[in-house]
Amino acid sequence: MGSKTDENVMQECSNWLTWFGIENNMVVASAHRNPDKVRDLMVNAKSNGYGVVIAAAGMAAALPGVCSAYTSLPVLGVPLDGGLPGGIDALYSIVQMPAGLPVGTLAVGKAGARNAAALAARMLALSDEKIASRVEEFKANEYKI
Length: 145
Description:
single chain, 48% helix
């Protein structure tokens, strides 16, 4: 992530994760500008207690794929609008991963950020009853937070 707008989009994701009862933090790192930082974060993610990685990126959008290369955790990619109109370049960059390096790709922008949180909650709910309860509450409230 780079711009203030990108951070605002991903703040939506953080807000939703918090509502679901999922501890989270936002780290700004670039696959191109900070590759060592990204590698260190991903290599240590599981041992640091993470269960899912949500990576947002625009334009060339390499971050989610690089995250997938360095961790066995599920990686959810959120394309950001910053290059071609509508973020189509980021969407294609994230969704077109080589076999064996999966990235669950969501919609561009705020809707994708929110859905990344909802999907992460559903994944984590498989082994956490408190999160599962919040997912059911979310569904009962017609998917509104």
